[in-house]
Each structure stands twice: as C-alpha cells, then as structure tokens.
Write a structure and sequence with these properties.
Elements lengths: L1 H36 L1 H12 E6 L6 E2 L5 E6 L2 E5 L7 H14 L5 H12 L6 E7 L1 H9 L5 E5 L2 E3 L7 H4 L1 E4 L5 E4 L1 H5 L1 H5 L3 E6 L12 E4 L6 E4 L3 H18 L3 E8 L4 E8 L10 H4 L2 H4 L9 H11 L7 E4 L3 E3 L2 E3 L8 E4 H7 L2 H11 L1 H10 L26 H8 L8 H8 L1 H4 L9 E6 L2 E4 L11 H14 L2 H4 L9 E12 L2 E15 L6 E7 L11 H16 L6
Parallel strand pairs: 2-12
Antiparallel strand pairs: 1-10, 2-3, 3-7, 4-5, 4-6, 8-9, 10-11, 12-19, 13-14, 13-23, 15-18, 16-17, 19-20, 21-22, 22-23
Length: 570
C-alpha cells in the first residue's frame, strides 16, 4: 500500500515538472518573439507613453486664379495656450480668463472657468486653451497681464473675393478629430497638398502619465501648405457669375450652370453655378455642391452631334444622307416622336441638327448600331470621371451596349436613357473645335511645392475623329444655329457653331412634361478661342433652350469677345 502511494506521488511530481517545463518554454518563446519580432512595436509604444505630443496648426496654402489674384488665403489668428508649471494660482487664472473671454462671446463664464481650470490643473509645460483667437482678443488678453499664458500663430482661412468661384474652391470645416480640413472643390480635392504639416510641442511624462517637471520639452515649428494656381480667369469668372445670376432670374430657372473652356488645352477658364456659394459663410453641404460636375442629367438634344459624328466617322452616313419623317416611329413597342410633335418629310443631316429631329437621330443611331455608338460615346468621355482634383465629381451613367434594346439605342441617340454632367458634355464637344482631341479637363495649372513648381497638363495626342468628319461636323454645327430655329443670333459679325438641348426630366414610368433642362453649347466658328455651355434648370419663362439658354449664351459670348479682343469673322 505504501509503495502504491509513493508511486502515485512520483507520477504527480513528473506531471508537474512537465507542465512547468512547458510553461517555461512558452514564456521563453513569447519573450523571444517579442524581443526579435515586436521590438520596434513595443519600443514605439513605450516611447508614445513616455511623451505628451500636442499639435501646432500650419498655415494653409493659398489658392490663386490664373492671373495671380488670391481666391483663398489666410488671416493671422492665434492659438491661446497656458504653461501650467509657471502658474502660481490656477484658480485665479481660470476665473480671470473665463470672465474676459465670456464677455467677448466665447461662452458662459461658469463653463469656461471649469474648462480652463481642468486644462491647467497639472504640471505641463504647455497646454492649448482656445483655437483661432482673433487679434483684438489677443490684444485684450495681453493687456490683462495674465500669468502663464501665451499665443502661437494660428492662420484662419480667408476668401477675399467672397462668393467668387465658391463652388470651385469648396470650404473648410472641422472633422471628427477637431481638425479643420477641406471639403468639396479644390479645398477638398487637394486638402493634403494645401494643409501643410502641423508643428508639435513635445513634453516628457512619467509612467503614470504625469509631466516631469525637469523633463524634456521641445517644439517643432509647422510647415506651410503648398500654393495652388487655378486655370480660372478671375475676370471671366466674374463676368460669367454675374451673367448667370441675371439669366437665372430673367428666365425664372431653379438653378443654372455656365462653363467656359479653352478647347485646345482643356483648361477650365470659368465654372459658375447659381445659386452661389460663399465659402466664408458655409450653411449646408447642399449649398457647396458644384452642380457643373456633381449634378448629372439627361442632356437631351445636345447629344445629337455626338451621334451624327459617330455615324459620319464610321461611314454610315454623309452630310447629305436623308431620312424620312412622316410620323412617330416605334422601337421595342415604344413610340418615338419629335419634341414638338411636328413632322418634316425628307430631311438631311443638317436639317436633323437644325430642327433637332428625334426621329432622325434614332434612325442614325440604328444605322451605326449599339456597339459602335457606345464605343464612340466612351471615347468622347461619357460614363467616366476626369479626376479633376475637385471633390464631388460624378461619372454619369452610360450602360454597356450589351444591355441595350432597340428603344435604348434610339433614346440614347437623342440624349435620353443616359446621363452626364455639364462638364462631360462640354469636354466631349471640345473635340469639334480642337481637331478631335479629348483632353483631360484641368482646373489646376500648377502647384508650388517646397521643392519647386509642378505644372499640370494632360493632353491627348490622338484624335478620335477623322479630318473629314471634323470638317463635316463644323459645317453642320454652324448650319444648325440658324435664324429659323433660334431667331436672329444677335452676335453681329460672328458665326456660331453649336447645339441646343431641351430635355425633360425622367420620373418613374416616364418623363415629367412640365420640367425641363435647357442647354446650349457652342463656340465661335472661326476663332475657336473658347467653348461654352449654358444650362438652366427648369426655366419658367419658356421650357425651350432656344428661348432661354441660347440667348444667355449669346449675351455671355458678347462679353467674352470684348474681353479677348476677338476680331469679327466678316
């Protein structure tokens, strides 16, 4: 019996020894893993726990127009900070500071007092108290001779031109971390480049997180952000914004957009929306939405030149090719009719564009087929983003041709059943004025970095249309802006190449007959100095582009002719 008990005891001891050895091996293995493979991680963690780091704001880079005018800059404000190790009576400072700042509108005195006392009740070398103190408040605090406080420069965004180019610029607002960052426009699209690098105040602390009175203390100065120069011409932007406001009010539109581009470089000379947006007076993100790039719509008849150009380029038609228009036609069980319900018999391609014949456009679309029309529309830039460095850009919608049925091909041929932004329509149209090139639009011309200037340019080297097609389209677009369709163009001495589009707004089950988007797009036929698109949303004086967006286009073209000094054609 004793032998059995002794044997059992030895067995338990062996098991315990094995368990002990296994645990020891696990501990040694874990220690080795930490030392060999996680050394840098735990070293950084220990370093982080050993120091208190607080940011100092950097000056944001400026935004300039192409002529060097400042559109966004900074005003000098200050960050108010305290040095708790130097403060003898922290309660007294909190009371005095709260009394002064509450009288200047910073908040309730009791809440400020509690806030400041909580912040300075320690032995830190440095602690931030208030951001963006204006110079007047700084002067008042300095005259009060409060102990242990100081000021660091804290630039605040300033838009000296007010609402000018507001939708292009975007705005600044606080994020979830309490930092001011850019949203929408250039401020959002180039936030990283504009923001710069914040400075830091670094203080040593003990294992319990308390500041070490005689410990390390250092400061790294902030680095200013990069300046950005836009392609926007300040004078043209001003003319366009003023004219757009007058046009929206004159025709009773819900909103409006005008874009002016240099078709040869794809530089955006002006981009305006109305109602306007002032970055200094931000109220809602909806106000900041740049509808020129973010609001997609069915363009309507301004798409007909793209359909005709594709058909000319593949040889399916010539300018003199005719079609029959004796009444509505049916595709996939759906009726297609002209916008005015009228019919014109035998028509050629020039008459198709001049009268804006839906039946003719659908016929041309079916002559080239879904696959080829889709390929050309993609080549013109529809259905994809340009990555403009403007936050908020939309791609539009262009379904793959494999999903089209006959009625889809017909509708897309005259600008329904697909969507695009105003910028996409204008940039595609640029090809008719610049030799068939689809350049990537740009609104930033250069970025001034600490290492030099970066020039922004991305020009295509391959035309998507033949020279013959381009010449035919040029002539057709000139003929399309006729007195019969538009009335007298009232731009004496200049020929206009362009196209209007009056597009109904799609609703569930069809289109709303009472709401339209009226667009005119064009260029001066001889000089081709600029292309311009005017879009009015739901004009009340008339639903038709020929009576709203076209006259506004002409008014703006008159001013641009004077500004650029463009000589008459004849």
């Amino acid at each position: 019996m004793k032998k059995s008990i002794h044997s059992s005891s030895n067995h338990r001891i062996k098991i315990l020894c094995i368990v002990f050895i296994m645990i020891s091996l696990l501990l040694v293995g874990r220690l080795a893993h930490v030392q060999l493979f996680q050394h840098s991680y735990y070293s950084a963690l220990a370093e982080d726990q050993h120091w208190i780091v607080q940011d100092l704001p950097s000056a944001r880079g400026r935004i300039l127009s192409s002529d060097g005018a400042i559109l966004a800059s900074n005003q000098l404000h200050y960050l108010l900070y305290a040095e708790p190790v130097r403060i003898q009576s922290k309660h007294l400072l909190a009371n005095e500071l709260a009394a002064i700042l509450s009288s200047l509108g910073f908040g309730e005195e009791v809440e400020l007092r509690d806030k400041y006392y909580e912040l300075i009740d320690n032995d830190l070398w440095w602690i931030a108290l208030e951001k963006e103190i204006d110079p007047r408040t700084k002067e008042i605090l300095q005259k009060s001779n409060l102990e242990g406080i100081g000021f660091e420069p804290s630039p605040v965004r300033y838009y000296p031109e007010g609402a000018l180019a507001g939708h292009v610029l975007g705005f600044l607002a606080y994020n979830e971390k309490g930092d001011r960052v850019g949203y929408f426009g250039v401020e959002g699209g180039l936030d990283g480049e504009l923001r710069g690098r914040p400075g830091k105040v670094i203080q040593e602390r003990d294992a319990r997180g308390r500041p070490i009175l005689m410990g390390g203390h250092s400061q790294i100065d902030p680095i200013q952000g990069w300046d950005v120069t836009l392609t926007i011409d300040r004078s043209v932007q001003y003319l366009v914004e003023r004219g757009l406001k007058e046009g929206v009010e004159r025709y009773g539109a819900a909103s409006g957009t005008i874009i002016v581009m240099d078709p040869h470089t794809a530089a955006i000379i002006a981009m305006a929306n109305y109602p306007e947006f002032n970055p200094s007076d931000f109220k809602s993100e909806l106000d900041a939405k740049n509808i020129a790039i973010a609001d997609i719509y069915e363009p309507g008849s301004v798409m007909k030149p793209f359909t005709v150009a594709a058909a000319l380029d593949v040889g399916s038609i010539t300018p003199s090719t005719t079609f029959e228009d004796y009444g509505p036609v049916t595709y996939s069980g759906h009726i297609v009719d002209n916008w005015d319900g009228r019919h014109y018999g035998i028509q050629d391609m020039g008459e198709l564009l001049r009268i804006s014949n839906n039946i003719g456009a659908a016929w041309v679309g079916h002559r080239i087929g879904s696959e080829k029309l889709y390929d050309y529309l993609v080549s013109f830039g529809f259905g994809s983003k340009y990555d403009l460095t403007l936050e908020g850009e939309d791609t539009g919608t262009l379904r793959h041709h494999s999903s089209w049925i006959d009625i889809d091909l017909a509708n897309i041929s005259f600008g329904q059943g697909m969507s695009a932004s105003a910028l996409q329509v204008l940039n595609g149209f640029n090809a008719f004025a610049n030799g068939g090139f689809i350049h990537r639009p740009r609104i930033v011309s250069q970025i001034s970095t600490d290492r030099g200037t970066i020039e922004i340019s991305d020009l295509s080297t391959e035309s998507i249309l033949s020279e013959e097609t381009l010449q035919d389209m040029h002539n057709l677009l000139i003929a399309g802006v006729s007195q019969e369709e538009y009335g007298h163009p009232n731009l004496k001495g200049y020929k206009i190449a362009g196209k209007s589009g009056t597009a109904q707004v799609p609703i569930e089950g069809g289109y709303d007959p009472s709401i339209t988007n009226a667009t005119f797009i064009g260029y001066l036929a001889e000089s081709k100095v600029f292309t311009m698109l005017v879009r009015l949303e739901n004009p009340q004086s008339s639903p038709y582009a020929a009576e709203t967006s076209y006259p506004l286009w002409v008014d703006m073209a008159k001013q641009l002719v004077n500004y650029y000094g463009i000589p008459p054609d004849f």
